[in-house]
Amino acid sequence: MDWQPLWLTFKLASITSIMLLFLATPLAYWLAFGRFKARGLVEALIGMPLVLPPSVIGFYLLLAFSPSHWFGAWIESVFGIRLVFSFPGLIVASVIYSLPFMVYPIRAGLQAVPQSLVDSSYILGKGPIETFFRILLPNSKPALLTAFVLTFAHTVGEFGVVLMIGGNIPGVTKVASVAIYNEVEALNYSMANQYAMVLFFISFIILLFVYSVNNRLLRVRK
After folding, report:
1. pLDDT digit string (tens) for 174-217?
2. What is the SS3 string spanning 56-68?
3. 100 Cβ partners below 8 Å, 6+ apart?
4. What is the rounded CA–CA span in Å between residue 142 and residue 76?
5. Closest Cα partner for 12 from 163, 146, 145, 143?
6. DSSP state of 140
């Protein structure tokens, strides 16, 4: 079995999850506590990957990332990066496609922190930033962990978006989901089963670890 697609898959999932953890946390805080009229519009845009077929998102990202489009041409001219059929393109597409899986659990975790703790922090003279890092984030650990793992697992299972953006370039954009599709298309079910079993086993271990840690954290809080 060629391990390159699996390595690319977990590399993509790790980079995407880490990037989104830093990008989505302040966004989740803004959605949880910010006051603005366009909240519904912002939430609808963030949640679009939850309802749209991956091929639709992949198609429009392919158009936007193409060198013939102004955005793709601008990225290539300024940063020297071509997003279509490249690993950086997979990262950008995965960040966009997995955004709600990181934002919504973190927002729910932040909103679940007792208001009394937040009020006590302000009474003691702490500002919003210090309250965020010393009160809200420490008390949202289960949500942060859940969001990270959901994003990781969702990225591992991506197919439509990564196929549209990255294609099927061995060692560059051929991730495990694409490799499974190729093996099934070639009627090589044995090899497809090997890829699928590795993904199944690793995903199960990750979820088992997360739920075990979350249950332990919840017991400690009680």
Report:
1. 999 999 999 999 999 999 999 999 999 988 888 888 888 777 76
2. HHHHHHHHHHCCC
3. 46, 47, 49, 50
4. 39
5. 163
6. G
